[in-house]
Write a structure and sequence with these properties.
It is built from 15 helices and 8 strands. The chain is an alpha/beta fold. It starts with 63 loop residues before the first helix and ends in a 5-residue tail after the last helix.
Length: 447
Amino acid sequence: VIVVGGDGDGGGGGGAEKNPFDLHGVAGGLPSSSGATAYSSTFQGGNAGDKKKGKINAKQATSIVDSLKELYKAKVRPVEEALKFGSFYSPLLTDGDFEGKPNVLLLGQYSTGKTTFIKHLLGTEYPGCNIGPEPTTDRFVVVMHGHEPRVTPGQTLAVQSDKPFTGLSTFGSSFLSKFEASQCNAKLLEEITLVDTPGVLSGEKQRTDRGYSFVQVCEWFAARSDVILLLFDPHKLDISDEFKAVISCLRGHDDKVRVVLNKADQVSAQQLMRVYGALMWSLGKVFMTPEVCKVYVGSFNDKPPITDNNQLGAELFAKEHADLMKDLLDIPQRSCDRKVNEFVKRVRAALTHARIIAHLRKQMPVMTGHAEKQKKLLANIEAEFEKCVHEHQLPRGDLPNPKRFREIVSGMQIWKFPKVDKKAMKVLEEVLTVDLPAVLKLFDNPF
């Protein structure tokens, strides 16, 4: 259903030239768009012989997640591969992305209590944790369940297809050397996975090169997390440029974000009131939305809260702690809904991406002058986005970031992208309007 130009019949005649961008016959071909739950479930490689086609409906799938996986492989991934969607949005999904446990991502400046918070949740230290007043966590640590304590290096994790971390290999060895998994036998980790991160830098330190894009890595984890916790310290309410960039990359995931004002027992009741107001004011300027995130106030560590300066603190902190724990313990129940939600967001983004690429490719000259035309289009990409909005009735909220889109496309050749016809668009549209609703209906999912 993705065809590049030409009026030939796809190889019917002996003199017809095979189109190098024709996806028919590659990886089993793209599925047909007929039927609510009928789609090709098996893809053959180039040497695998004849295409194997079959009909799979939701009744034959073991779960909603399996149905999402089959829908993605059959209808979405071939389009993503052809249009290099992974370079624009996030790497192509693997089985591990669908089957992984729910994730909780912790973000914050150094010494705001992220590692201590994880220790408090688990009731024990995890292998490799280091707690101190200075920046101690210098790497991304995925804390997962394991019967024996062990630490797995990032390079090893990136090649394990059964783990949802293969996509991190795109950030290179400089990042993978700062990435590891820590396993410990904690009850909570049987249901969820926690992601500890390096402290966001501030002042002169944020000009230091980490060797990888910290913001892009945070964005990768945010897209695959069920809950994102932003930890603040009453004495560190300033939001640095790097932290602001991290929070900006969370747009689109606002429903996942929770704010934790940690170490709140270190200030008096009057100071806490002022700190809370200052925090809300700062967050409002960064998130650029009138809505306020859910904020939990407390002291999340193993020691009882200090209430010498705040007589009402004990009751307040206990209620806030109970609410936060309830929120975290509800994550496994919401995990399936979250995966469906993320799948829908990805398909919508892929559909928008396909329409934009088709719009830009359509304006390319036939013979020469491709590079010059591409430069003109990218220089005025905002206006081209507006044309797409009016031509295809695209919601403006689904458009990609113009600056980032320009930077990525500048290293590519638009005229060499495959031509996307109406059938390809219809396949993606039917995933949202026909296939997915049919799957959810058969499984009687309340989502």
